[in-house]
Structures are given as C-alpha cells and as structure tokens.
Design brief:
With 187 residues, the protein is α+β, with helices and mostly antiparallel strands. It has three helices and eight strands.
C-alpha cells in the first residue's frame, strides 16, 4: 500500500495522509463516501426464534457497502469478501436498525468498507452496537473488469487507525491465502 509518509515528532503521521495505489491524480476523503441507512425490522425479517434473521442484516451490510464503495470509486463495485462478521446481540422485530459505512482503506482496484450496525427500540432508549463487518469491494467497468479507484485521503487520527487496522487484516488474509496455497501444493 502506497502512503505519503510525512511524520511529526512523535512518530505519528502528519495528517492529512493519502493512501492507496489507485488513480494517482484522484483523491477522495472518507467523508466523501460515508453512508448511513436506517430501517425498521418487520415480521418478514424474523428467524425461527422471533429475532431478526442474520441473513437480513448481511444483505443490508452488502447493500450499504456497495453504495459506499461505489461512491468512492465512481464506478460500480462487486463484493469480493466479507471479513470478520461479528454478531454481538440479537435484534428484535420492531427495532430500528442503523447501518453506518465508511471506506477504511483502498488498494489499486479494491476498497475495505467498515460497517457498524446498531439497534434501538422504536420507543426510545440508547442504541446498542449489534454487528460489525468488514467488506472488500472491487470497482469494475462495463465489461466487469477491475478498474483503479481514487486514492484515499485520511484526515483524522481515527481514520488513520482504521486504515492501519484494515492493512493488518489484509496482510493476514494474504498470508492465510499463501499458506493454504502452499499446503495444497504439498499434498
């Protein structure tokens, strides 16, 4: 991952910082593509236990990740992978669910989109964090071939932290893939 690595005296990067290996003369900020989606969970969303079916949440995550990634890329995108889907608590039918998505990092043609899901009672009360997901999306052209995406400008320490965490997840996925490939060759 290419980074403009200007640092201040304490070793932390000087912000803003531009990352990615995509289109060199195009840069977008995290805020440019952020998306929030809110919906009421209805009876048709129920599983056999009367709470919201996990697949309904995953479908909503996939949709919001598509919108976020497509906004950043200015091209259609496709889902390459879901990474680290954490279901923290059940969501009840009749609750309001809010999904928030942001681009965490970009490569040449891909983007990691982080999605946070919260639920709250329609009658009020504090929202509770129910799910977190990381979705890798790839920008495509009309023939469905990958295309380079704009680089990402990180403006806040939180955006930088999310970028570094995303890079660690990417490196872990690549190492796992190399390991699996090596084991297949050896067997």
């Amino acid at each position: 991952m290419s980074e403009d690595r200007t640092q201040n005296g304490d070793g932390a990067p000087t912000l803003p910082l531009v990352v990615g290996r995509g289109v060199a003369d195009q840069t977008r900020t995290v805020a440019d593509a952020q998306v929030t989606m809110t919906q009421l969970m209805a009876p048709q969303d129920a599983n056999l236990f009367g709470s919201v079916f996990g697949g309904v949440i995953l479908a909503a995550v996939d949709k919001i990740a598509y919108v976020c990634a497509t906004r950043h890329a200015c091209h259609p995108t496709v889902t390459a992978s879901f990474d680290q889907v954490d279901f923290r608590s059940a969501i009840a039918i009749g609750e309001i669910v809010t999904l928030r998505a942001a681009v965490n990092t970009v490569g040449r043609t891909s983007m990691e989109v982080g999605v946070r899901v919260t639920a709250e009672s329609v009658h009020g009360g504090p929202p509770r964090h129910t799910n977190s997901c990381y979705v890798t999306m790839v920008a495509i052209d009309e023939e469905r071939h990958p295309v380079p995406v704009p680089r990402l400008e990180l403006r806040t320490p939180e955006e930088y932290r999310r970028h570094r965490d995303a890079e660690e997840r990417r490196n872990s996925r690549l190492e796992l893939a190399r390991s699996s490939q090596q084991r297949r060759r050896e067997s």
